[in-house]
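can u do me a favor
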């Protein structure tokens, strides 16, 4: 693994502040609503226990989303990674970029089709990996995510790099 500082960062993809706040807020509000229902409802003990259990899971999901969306995705000469240093995919691992309307992809995002399957991973709101597919998007801004997907497609097609400062 190379040192993070050795790679030239071609592009950064930041989570959208508005989408991030909205998504986290919805999960926290749902968790609070489930707790409130558990303690104020006269439906019975089973309903209360189930509401608390689901509320805990939803609040945990909101916290995971909050932590995950503090990361930034970086496109480098070596591939795509997040700021924790975890590689989503290196250029030599990517077979194609799927951006079409009918592609199974995150909201406003794109999917990288890899040559080999990787370990299943989920970073809520930013990216996921299942088998040989990596989905990028979610709480990221539509235009910036679309631009990153287009630039990755162009690079894979052999079009001269539009992002590099070597010109």
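np, heres the sequence
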């Amino acid at each position: 693994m190379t040192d993070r500082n050795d790679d030239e960062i071609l592009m950064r993809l930041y989570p959208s502040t508005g989408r991030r706040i909205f998504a986290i807020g919805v999960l926290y509000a749902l968790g609070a609503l489930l707790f409130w229902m558990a303690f104020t409802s006269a439906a019975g003990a089973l309903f209360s226990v189930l509401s608390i259990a689901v509320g805990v899971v939803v609040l945990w999901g909101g916290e995971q989303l909050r932590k995950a969306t503090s990361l930034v995705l970086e496109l480098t000469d070596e591939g795509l990674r997040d700021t924790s240093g975890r590689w989503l995919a290196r250029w030599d691992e990517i077979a194609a970029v799927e951006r079409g309307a009918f592609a199974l992809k995150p909201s406003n995002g794109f999917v990288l089709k890899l040559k080999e399957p990787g370990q299943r991973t989920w970073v809520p709101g930013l990216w996921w990996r299942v088998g040989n597919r990596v989905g990028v998007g979610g709480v990221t801004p539509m235009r910036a995510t679309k631009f990153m997907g287009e630039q990755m497609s162009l690079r894979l097609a052999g079009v001269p790099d539009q992002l590099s400062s070597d010109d």
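The CA atoms of residues 79 and 90 lie 4 Å apart. hope that helps!!
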